[in-house]
Amino acid sequence: MDKIISNKEKSYLAVTLSGDNDKEVIKQMASALEEEGYVKDTFADAIVKRESIYPTGLPVGEINVAIPHTDPEHVNNAAVCLGILDKPVTFNVMGMEGETTEVSLLFMLSIKHKEDQMGMLQKLISLCQDQNTLKEILAKDQDKINEVMTALVEK
């Protein structure tokens, strides 16, 4: 895992990842958030457990995404971590039992207040509809990543 961007002022970071399955990449991202002080040491296990019960894979086109998150009790400070995978990893599809999708981008949420969750998810769903933007993110365009992440974290 390598950090591409870490913006403490705006509470986001972006990392590149490689792994063989969803649990591996989720744990790597959770570790990055923990290193930055955004989440507690319980976050990684909590997010893996939640993903197994409530999957977050979204088949939105050529580039698919996942939005793993968990309860605020595992969070120190709100943040968003973008994970750009070297190669796609299989995730279970949100709300579709038994369905899977190959995910290339992850947006891991560390949400401090439950009332903030729906607004953030709505912004992400809207973003995920734009395959051109997702392609720019996947290509590691730092200007585009900063632009997108800044828009996500703004209230």
From TrEMBL:
All residue ranges annotated as the PTS EIIA type-2 domain in the record: 6-155
PROSITE patterns the record matches: PTS_EIIA_TYPE_2
Keywords: Sugar transport, Transport
InterPro entries given in the database record: PTrfase/Anion_transptr, PTS_EIIA_type-2_dom, PTS_SugarTrans_NitroReg
Matching PANTHER family: PHOSPHOTRANSFERASE SYSTEM MANNITOL_FRUCTOSE-SPECIFIC IIA DOMAIN CONTAINING PROTEIN (PTHR47738:SF3), PTS SYSTEM FRUCTOSE-LIKE EIIA COMPONENT-RELATED (PTHR47738)
Name of the protein this chain belongs to: PTS sugar transporter subunit IIA
